[in-house]
Amino acid sequence: QVQLVESGGGLVQPGGSLRLSCAASGSIVSIDAMGWYRQAPGKEREFVARISTGGSTNYAASVKGRFTISRDNAKNTVYLQMNSLKPEDTAVYYCMAKYTYWGQGTQVTVSS
Question: Out of 37, 39, 86, 100, which residue is the most buried by the measure of CB atoms under 10 Å away?
């Protein structure tokens, strides 16, 4: 059982930045697939970014070049650095582990 707690969401202006954190209840060293998904109002949950144990990353086309996922195994934490934010990035962002465990989500709102 893995519990995930996201933090770092909030309101930001277009072009701004936010860093999301996902703290796991236990060691993430052996968890190969960790990542972020998001769900905007009236839309289905969609993939944002994923990182493997070895540090390999994948990104959705819509965020590539603007978002960076990273992990700190010593702190059992995964991060999502979001730069050049756009209004269409507004959503609840969820942390994922093993495609099985999910956090409660953190709201990101991009608006002027």
Answer: 37
